[in-house]
Each structure stands twice: as structure tokens, then as C-alpha cells.
Amino acid sequence: MSLLLAALLALAQDPAPAPLPEEVSAPAPESEGYCTPRRLALLLEELSTKHPDLVRVESLGRSASGLELPVVTLARLEGDSPRSRPAVLLVAAIGPEDLFGTELALALVRQIVSDARREGAVRELLGRVVVHIVPCLNPDLRSQAIAALDSGSLALAPRRVELDCNFPSGWDPVAEAGAGPYPLSEPESRALAEFLVARPNVSACLRLVLPAPEQAVAHSWPDADVQVQGELCGALDAGGLERIERAPGSFLRFAYGERGAFVAALQFPFERGSPLSLPRVSEIPRLARGAVGGVLHVARALPQVELTAPAVASLAPSQWSVDLELHNRGTLPSASARAREVGVVGAPELEVMGARLVAAAALSAGEARSLPVRGARIALPELGGSERLGLRIFLSADAGSDVRIEVRAPRAGSARADARLE
Amino acid sequence: MASPRPFPSLAALALALAPAAPAAVAVQEPRYRSCEELERALDEAAVLEGSRLRRLEHAGLVAAGVRAFEIATPGPIEASQRPTLLVLGGFDGISLAGSEAAAACARALGAPASPLGPEVSVVIVPCAARAALVRYLADQRGDGGDDTPVDLDRDGSVDEDGPEDLDGDGLVLSMLVEDPAGAWVLSDDDRFLVPAGPLDAPRLSLRPEGRDDDGDGRFNEDGPGGVALERSFPLERPAADPSTGALPLSQPAARALADLVLERRVFAVLSLQGSHGQLAGPGGTASIESWAAPDRALYELCVREFRAATSRVQEQPLSRRAARLRDEGGSAQDWFAVVGGALSLELAPWGPRVALAARGAALDARFVRETGSGPRAPLERDLRWRPYLDDVTGGSAFVPWTPHLLGGTRVRIGGWKPWTIENPPAADLPRALAGIERFALSLAEGAPKLELEVRAERDGRIATLRARVRNVGRLPTSLAARSAVRSTGGVTLELALEEGHELLAGRELDTLGTLAGGESSVEREWIVLAPEGSALALRATAPWCNPVRVEVRP
Asked: Is residue B238 located within the same domain as residue B106?
């Protein structure tokens, strides 16, 4: 077993090793163990019917030939809307080079659901964050590939436009023949881009890929992101900014370049079961375990704001100061530097209800620095991974008033704290 | 590239367009018409006897609310299959003069006596960014954005801090705010601004006139205004600028125009917009400017025709960035060239030189103007417009910066008045539009046209064919600059073999490269084994041309 898979397996086993569920070790049979788009849709439907509290299956849209493009949302679906929670998006099977992604994505959906049923930690995680999985962005290609396997003819007709060259960032019609007449000219790429744009809470985007040789590539992405990406991808042995720099018009480049999401291309070495990029059916469970590890690692790293209990002090009649601490429990920052550069997310914000907000300050190294106040709201700085920020807010209200303090960050969820002014 | 055929004499063109002359001066009572009025006028012209103008009922355009007109002289080739010149008026959402110019082109080229031949068609969209133009006409100002709500300052609220007329002069002008982080300082000519250097003070922020409606300490940073269609195209689009759309081609009108260019054989796009007064080729950014370099001879030809048609002064071809004096990614003009493969030109009806010529300068003989050099010399754009401001309008086109106190913040209100530099005063419209319809006609008439010269001999069943392709138009058969998403840009020559024919020598399908205006290809030769008395057919095609087919019976 490669070091990479060992690392991903170790990540998957946090916090405690769990036996693989039956379903993963025996993927659903389909001609030769691979999924047609129709079979995939049926299996996903079955999962969502069986686990309605954890699995939601929706459609991104339809492919060029009219096949559904399913997207699976894994989250505890009670309580807050999934759209207000931090999210990670995994996209599989975009082109011929990652055909295998569908089998892995399906297996990892099953594994995560099974883990959530068995393990409190995974269930708790799915209560805080959302995992979106697109198991097959290119069902037309998959249909063709399965038909090719059945017929023994292993040549796939090239598509005029390559989906992974058809996204906006770095889109290059001068050099890339498969770039398409304009970005998102294909229904599949457009549907995925619109899905991502409509979900500013997605902080990280992932793909499942075959290993590629590492190459140093010059780029001018912000230093802060290069460091965070380096740490994230280092832990997963995944491709990051260098990989997307070499892939103009790719989905991951769009996800980072235009949406400011952190990205990782999770690599899976395997012996091909056919000339197509499909593993042997017997290898799928082993590969799926690695995929689960990678996805859960990123889900745990997602930024998430927390507030400590407020400490109230009286300054004068009906004038109060309230101290509390804001914490990002994830290792990813509340927004990437690129997201701020392209302005796709607003800054975190604190809102006070039940008292008049007079002023606010950030506490750092014994120094208080005033923060801009607009009405009942305070504009907060972005929080780095695991960062803590002391806050002191000055309020005006009658003694005995109940105050609610709420922090909202577009990509790091929200947190609330209540206090009585006394 | 071979020498192009001489441009038809101006006299001939003037004669040809004579019946349309009133249309060229459609502005008999010079005033700006609304999009509704412009389109209604064209609808009325379309029903006149002999008119070649008609509404274009293209499903995508109709669905997106884009009103287009087609001009086609009756002929054997269906209009939608012909090489097409696309004329876009005011696609920048600012240039109302561009819309007037496009309407003038439609009336002139669509008139019953129009010299337009039956081998090309012209599609004209007078108000290509309709919502933005409507807003501009109503407000006498605008940024080219449509009416899609856009959160310009990304604060979660939309259109919450727009401009107002603070000083009650009936105009919403510009405002300078003293700001230690401001990017500007006053230049030596204290009407104009220059970028602030390290020790410059006081530093200024340039904002539209108005108060800080949302109390965030910033002035008028998120007013009404949405996506600028012409800058929402994908090539090097600045994703961080919300006015270019959440995604490239996010607006249905922009996508419908892009699809029209892909569907039809569009050989040229003439965008009537801007305020530089010149003819500009593609190249909103340095990389697209370099990409377009192989076609310099073509752009030189266009500049010659532009000079002849409009009597304007322009020596050399200019890229869009050179004409506009700034870089702009995401332009439709660049996409039309790189992906659409069209000759993509921007013609700005109004500009500093046009403005000077419009009314003539009234310069005081004693007046000595600053030369415009030194560390705080005004920017090039201001230097170009200054003679118009001083010598033609006597300074009245600009409101001097006047101090105001705005809730404790010191501001100055002033700037260019409406109908000065972005669009001409209505009285100057006829001058700004003069000759543009002639230039449009010259483009349409200059479309490349293929002719096949075939010689054939036969000895028994062995037939020998020799053929060359000639481009008898003035424009080349395609751009020389290539891109990977377009198929071959060259002329192809195909021998159509029928049953019983056997090719003994030569290529069934041959690519001949691009042919310049008037150029002939090298001769190609085929040897075919064919039944006696049978016919042989050759077919030549090129991206910008109607295909030609010649059948011989050697």
C-alpha cells in the first residue's frame, strides 16, 4: 500500500478506527461492477429514502444528452439550513481521466452515512458542516464508457468541449482546443458553476484524480493562501495550487480563482482494470477508504466560528461592557485571501439584539483596538485557522435586559451567545 | 499578403448612398432618441416599399429582449447563410451616439436604393445594451451597467448608497473626498487629477456626487447599476469586478449575441461605442493585442477605409487599449475576434478630435496653454479633451471643483457636465455620425468572395483537373491570428468524388491558407479515373465566405 493511501486511511480513522460497512466492501453489482448513470441514480435514491435525516439527493441540471446530474448533500438535515453551515464540495468524474471517481464517490457516500450511524464524531461533524458530492458530472461520458466496456470496444469518442477546460478562470481558447466557445458553454459545467456561485458557504472544493508528477510552477496567488493550501494538501498528499496553475479553465482553478475556495486534488494510484481509467472492481473499497479519509479531513478543517460565554461589567447606569471570545475551530481561515481579493464573500459580522450597540473593540496583547460599528452590527476581521479574537462591546440598555449576540461568517457558519445585563 | 483592390471612390459611394442621405442625417432635429423611438423608426422604415430592412426574429435574441434588424438584398442565398456584418450600437451601455449611429447605418444600408449586394447580410442591433442605455438617457450619466441588482461593495446589501445632487444644481457630477488613502491628487491644471505619488498631499478619492447614505464611511460606493454587458465576456475578464457579472456571459442578452456570432458566418463586428473618436482593433489587454498582431495589414486597410469614409484623421491602426488609454479585460470586442474569428472593430462616434472639428476652435490669440509636461501634468486623456473644453466650450463643459462640507468631511463637487465627453451635445450628433454608414457599407461590400478557376482535360477515362481559388473581395478570407477553439481559418478546396470515380493523384480535401483581398491561391492538380462523359465537381469554402462549387465535364 502506498504511503499516500496509508496517510488517507489514517485520516479516515480519526477519531477511532471503524470497520468498513458491508456495503463498501461489496459495491453494488452492475454489468462489471461499474455504475451506469441510471444505476447511480437508483442507488442514490435508495440511500436518500433510507436515510432522509442525513442524505438529500438533488439535481444540478441535465447533461448535453439530457441525463440528470445528481448532487448528494450529506448533513444532519434538522436545525439550521445547510446553506448557513460551512461546506465542502467534492466533484467526481468530470472527464475521461477521472472516470473512476463515480465508484469512489458512491462508496464514500455510503461509508460516511454508515459512519454517521455508528460514530458520534461523524454524526456531530455532519451537524456542523455540509458535504456536497457530485458523483458524476459527465454522465454522457460514463454511459459511453460502460457501453464500451460491454462491447469490448475501448475507444471513447472525443468530446468537442472538454468539461475540465470549460470553466472561467484561466479559460484559454487560444491554446486549448477543448476550451469551448465560451466558458460554461456546456450544460454540465454551467450547472456546476451556478451551484457553487449560489453557495457562498462552500470553503473547499475537491476532486479525485490519478497521481501526476509534481512540478514547480510559478504563480502569483496570495502568500497567505499558498501557505494554507500547502498545509492542507501536504496532509492529504494532494495536488493544490501548482496543479490548478497547470490546468487553465479547470473546475478547481475556477473554484479557487473566481470563488476563493481552497482546493485539493486527492490522488489515487491504482492498477487499471481496463484501458479506461477505471480500477479493478476489487480495488474500489480500498480506494474508497482513502477518499473518505480525505473528505472527512477537509470537512473537519472547515472554518467555523464559536463564541465563548460573555462576561458583563457595568460601566455606568445603563452602560455596559461585554467581553467575549470569538474562535475559529477549523484549521482553514474564515475566508481565503483570494476570496477577499475577488470580493465573493463579505467580512464576518457581529450583531447585537436587545441593547443599543455603542462601540466595540478587539482585544489583542493587552491592547484594545476599536472596530467599525454600523447600527447594531460590527464588521469583524477575517479569522485565521484556529485563531481566537477577544472582543469587548459597549452597550446601552436598562439593567436586567437580555441581550443576544450573534456572529455570522459567510464561510464559517454562525454562533450565538446570550447575556443578561446585570 | 497581396495588395488589396483599391477602395471604391468616395464619389461612387456617396452617389450610391445618396437616397439614404436623409437617413445619415436622421437627426434632423438633433436630439437623442430613446431605444424605443430608434427601434420604432426602423420598424417604420422596414415597411416602406423596397426596403431591405426587417426585424430579425432570432429566438435567442428575442428571448433576451434584444431587438435586432437584418438587411439583405434578395438573392439566391438565404440571408442567414451569407457572410454577415454585425453592427452593435451602444453595447458599452454608455454611448447613445453609438446607438444613433447604428440606427443611421440601418436606415442607409436598408434603404431601397442601397448598393448592398445579394451576397452579404447585415445585422444591426441599435441598442445592444438596452437597459443601460435607457438608464443613461434618463439619468444623463451611467456606468454601462444594466438593471440587474449588483452588490458592488460586497457588503450584503444592494444599491444602498447611490449618488445624489448634493448642491442642487440639477446635475449629479463627481466628488473629491479628502482621504489619506486616496489614489489621486490635483494636477497642474487643477480641473484634472493625476495618480498620487508617495509624498503628494492632499490625497483625494474620486466618487460620484452624493452623501454616505448607508453610514459606512464611504461615499456612493454601491448605487444603482448592474452588469456591463460588453465587459462580461470571458477573455481575461476581471472576476473581482462585480460589474462584469457573477459568471462570464451571465446576462442572457450577452449570451444571445455571442451565440448569434457562433451560429452565423459573421465576418465582421462593428461596435459603435466609446469616446476616443477613432477606429480600434481588438486588444483590450496586452496579450490580446499581441494575439492580433498577425493581422496588422488588415487593420491598416480598415483604417484607410475609415479615413476615406469619415474624413477623420488616423494614421495607424490602434488596439482597443491604445485607443481607450487603459486596459480592459473581458471585452466582447476581443471575444468576437479570438473565438468568433471575426474582424472586430470599435468605432467611437465621438472623441476629442471630432469634438474640435465639430464646432471649430475659438482660441484667444493671446492665450498660452501649459505644455502638459512635468511631474503633475494632466493625464493623456485629459490633455486630449482640454482643447475642446477651453477652445470650443470656453471652459463651460466642466464645473470647477467647489468645496462643500458634508457631515464633517470636506469634499469638492465638480467635473465634466453631461453631454460633453461621453456623448456629444445633441447639436453635434450629425457631425459625430457623419460617414459612419459609409464605413459600414465599405465593410459589407468588402466582404471576401471566392471564385474558382478550373481547367480540365480528359484522355479516355483519365481526367486531369487544375484549379485555383481567388478572393475577389477586399477583405481576406479569415483572420491570420488563430485560436485553438476555431477550426481551420484557411480556404479549403474539396474534390467531390462520386461513385465510379477514383482519385489517382492529389488530395480530396486541401487547405490553402488565408487569401488576402484580391489574392489567388497556388494552383492545385488532381488526376481522377472517371467514366467518360461524367462530371467532376470542386467546392471551395472559407470561414468568411459563401462556398462556391464548380462542375466541369472534361
From this structure: yes
Q: Does a structural domain hold residue B356?
A: no
CA separation for the pair A170, A182 (Å, rounded): 12
The one-letter code for the residue type at B187 is S
B263 and B380 within one domain: no
Residues of chain A with pLDDT under 70: 1-32, 153-156, 214, 273-275
* B107 and B255 part of one domain: yes
What's the CA gap between B174 and B172, in Å, rounded?
7
Predicted confidence (pLDDT) per residue in B447-460, tens digit: 999 999 999 999 99
Are B87 and B122 in contact by the 8 Å Cβ rule? The answer is: yes
A377 phi/psi in degrees, rounded to 5: -120, 150
Residues of B in contact with A197 (CB under 8 A): 246-247
CB-defined contacts A:B, below 8 A: 73
At residue B4, the pLDDT reads 42
Give first-to-last CA distance, chain B, whole Å: 33
Residue B254: closest C-alpha in chain A: A182
Whether residues B243 and B342 share a domain: the answer is: yes
Query: What pLDDT band is residue B249 in, cutting at 50, 70 and 90?
Result: very high
* Strand-strand pairing, B53-56 and B68-72: antiparallel
A363-410, pLDDT tens digit by residue?
Answer: 988 888 999 888 899 999 999 999 999 999 999 999 999 999 999 999
B372 and B344, same structural domain?
no
C-alpha cell at B34: 430613446
Residue B151 confidence (pLDDT) above 90: no
Q: Are residues B321 and B434 in the same domain?
A: yes
Report chain B residues touching chain A, CB-CB < 8 A.
154-156, 214-217, 233-235, 237, 239-240, 242, 246-249, 255, 258, 262, 291, 335, 338-339, 482-486
- Strand A202-209 to A87-91 pairing: parallel
Residue B389 lies in a domain: yes
Mutate to test the interface with B, among A166, A167, A182, A185 (most CBs of B within 10 A): A182
Per the CB < 8 A criterion, the answer to whether B521 and B470 are in contact is yes
Shortest distance between the Cα of B246 and any Cα of chain A, in A, equals: 8
Per-residue confidence (pLDDT) for residue A366, from 0 to 100: 81
Residue appearing with cell numbers 439583405: B72
Q: Shortest CB distance from B247 goes to which of A176, A193, A257?
A: A193
CATH number of the domain to which B18 belongs: 3.40.630.10
- Closest-CA distance, A410 to chain B, in angstroms, reads 10
Domains, chain A, ordered by start: 3-301 (3.40.630.10), 305-420 (2.60.40.1510)
What residue in B sits closest to A259 (Cα-Cα)?
Answer: B239
Judged by CB atoms closer than 8 Å, whether chains meet at A173 and B483 is answered as yes
pTM: 0.86
Residue position matching grid coordinates 503628494: B200
Residue among A10, A26, A87 at smallest CA distance from A411: A87
Q: Which amino acid does the sequence have at B310? A: T
In the prediction, which pLDDT does A134 show? 98
- In this structure, are B181 and B295 located in the same domain? no
Provide the number of structural domains found in chain B. Answer: 3
- pLDDT at site B366: 57
Shared domain for B116 and B231, answered yes or no, is: yes
The residues pairing with B71 across neighbouring beta strands, listed in sequence order, are B53, B122
Query: Is 60 exceeded by the pLDDT of residue B16?
Result: no
3-state secondary structure of A232: helix
Radius of gyration of chain B (CA): 27
Q: Which of B243, B247, B483 should we substitute to test contact with A (largest number of A Cβ atoms within 10 Å)?
A: B247
Q: Which domain holds residue B14?
A: 10-136+226-350+424-445
Residue B211 pLDDT class (50, 70, 90 cuts): confident
Can you tell me the distance from the alpha carbon of A190 to that of A193, in angstroms, rounded to the nearest whole number? 5
Residue B333 is predicted with a pLDDT of 98
Judge whether B386 lies within some domain: yes
